[in-house]
Amino acid sequence: MAVKNFETLDTSTDVTTTRTLLHEAIPLTGTIVSGTYFEGYIPTLDTNIKNYSHGMFQSVYDYPYLSSSANHIFDLSIGYASTSGMSSSANEQNAKKINIYTNMAQTLLGYDVSGNVDTFESDLDLTDNDSQMKEVFFVNFSRLLTKDQVKKGSFSLTLGTGSWATPFAPGAGYGVTLTDLSASDTAGTNPNVNSGEYGLLYNSATASALGAVFYQAGVAVITASIFASGAEVGASTPLGQQDQFNLFHAVAYGTTGSWTSLPISQSCDAIRRRVYNLSFNNTTELNSTVYFCRASSTKFNYSSNPTYTTGSKIRVKNVASDTPMSYITTVGLYNSNNELLAVAKLSEPLKKDPSNEITLRVRLDY
Questions:
Q1: What global pTM score does this model have?
Q2: Mean pLDDT over all residues of the chain?
């Protein structure tokens, strides 16, 4: 009895590919970022915060970072462009702050037509140079949270606008909320950058753009001027953006220090303490190849399993005139050399005889 063990797949009709996007909600409350593991009177004693000897950024964990249970959430840093009015050789870590800004801009944006590193802007047109963000802070999320990318239109960040002691005081509300609700898969983003795409972060109350989120890179860039508010520092009169941000840090530490005269780690502490809520949806891109394995009425009605016969007789036939039958339990995918590459098991055996046809859909995810 001749039994055909293999059926050749036609790549034009039997094989197709699909792409599925899976999303997961990531809520990060401010108490995780600052306060839950607070062990002292200064922010540097938060045991879930790791600072480094190079002093260029700090890492935030969801648990004391020395614990094996800790998961890295994001890195936080600040920087300004070399052309910023804040830049001065007399500043604390001036070169490092410029280097951070330049490195992030080079990685996320790339170069302009003149060969210079682009500057972050609070609009989607990098060629006009009319909405430049030269003083910013960076939130670089871990790949554990963002997976393949941040879902467009899902990002939200709320920063407190109260005093250092009570950043979320009722009198000051719960601060400024930044969202990218104008971004979607078809609009509201700039795809012409090194890192993929970015969308703008708007103040939900005033609709002014105060930052950008780079979806594939998993980085949020927020301008320092988000803190430019008289209520922010309790000043009697509004101050300029640069002075206001400096004063914000002076109040934070009770000294005359400012954004330019404080090290990066202390500036990060001041920003981190004001995070009220942060949330977004991540995206996992699932690519699949689907194989349609077809068993027509005239094929696969016999089995090559040695137990299929006994004494030269088919076990499942009582008399010679009975139609042949088999039970399909497994699908094997082979290459051109008849080498087994993948095996798919059915949840239950499927009866196959000349009176029926079966098409099995086998999906390989990667």
A1: 0.80
A2: 84
